[in-house]
Amino acid sequence: MPPETTTPPPRRLADVAHRTAQERVEEALRQAILGGDLEPGERLVLDELSAQLGVSRTPIREAMRALASEGLIDMDSFRSARVHTPSLDEAREIYDLRLVLDPIAVRRAVEWITPEELATAEAIHETMLATGDLGEWVDGNREFHRVLQQAARAERLISIIDGLRNSAAMQVALSLKAEGSQIAQANADHEKILRAFRERDADAAVQLTEDHLRNTLEVIERYEAARRDGG
């Protein structure tokens, strides 16, 4: 049985008081990117971040490499770093893949999920309902789906889906920042997915997951269309 997962409290660049230096920086940068405090294309300067976070340059470099693997930061051969600027083609590719892979994981997970894993997902859902912080919500969204799907007991499959989900996180955040009313719809989707898991209804859980993914892509497409048109 995989270990229980808990949702960490929200953080921004000024709140990195515990955990290892790299973990603190990584979480702070992730939350700042997903919350819109650091914008797409923004240059990340080591000395500035070091002063702001109160840590040395080394854990910042390590955190940047970790976030680059998630698709949140772009690093070049000269070791300069910028917040990743996602594209619509990138989002469509990610969601085309997830519409194939997520249903496989969900169908297996419904069968194998434990009461403890389900309780963890429900706790994350409650935290997401209560928060008004976009960065925390988006980070919780990633964790919510990960906790449910890890019950599939398919390590390679879940690793691929996690990578795709991480790569889409910033675009989800940007689209929800522009269309905040969709957060309520996503929360309602999550409640229905949880109910299907509780009832061990694999067909319903798969259908709800597919609808949820398509709805998310539609929100991203609307955001990208508005951005292209200058809206």
Which descriptors would you attach to this protein?
Four Helix Bundle (Hemerythrin (Met), subunit A); Arc Repressor Mutant, subunit A; mainly alpha; three-stranded antiparallel β-sheet
What is the CATH architecture term of the largest domain?
Up-down Bundle
Lateral arrangement of strands in the main beta sheet: 1-3-2
Shape: globular
Please write the CATH class name of the largest domain: Mainly Alpha
Mean pLDDT: 88
The largest sheet, given as strand count, sense and whether it forms a barrel, is:
3 strands, antiparallel
What value does the Rg take, in angstroms?
18 Å
**Helical run tally:** 9
- How many strands? 3
Give the strand content.
under 5%
List the uncertain runs.
1-12, 14-18
Structural features, described:
There is one protein chain. This protein is mainly α. The chain has 2 domains: 21-83, Arc Repressor Mutant, subunit A, CATH 1.10.10.10; 88-228, GntR ligand-binding domain-like (Four Helix Bundle (Hemerythrin (Met), subunit A)), CATH 1.20.120.530. Helix content is 69%, strand content 3%. The protein is built from 9 helices and 3 strands. It has helices at residues 21-34, 46-53, 57-69, 88-112, 115-130, 134-149, 155-178, 182-198, 202-228, and strands at residues 43-44, 73-75, 81-83. It has a 3-stranded antiparallel beta sheet with strand order 1-3-2.
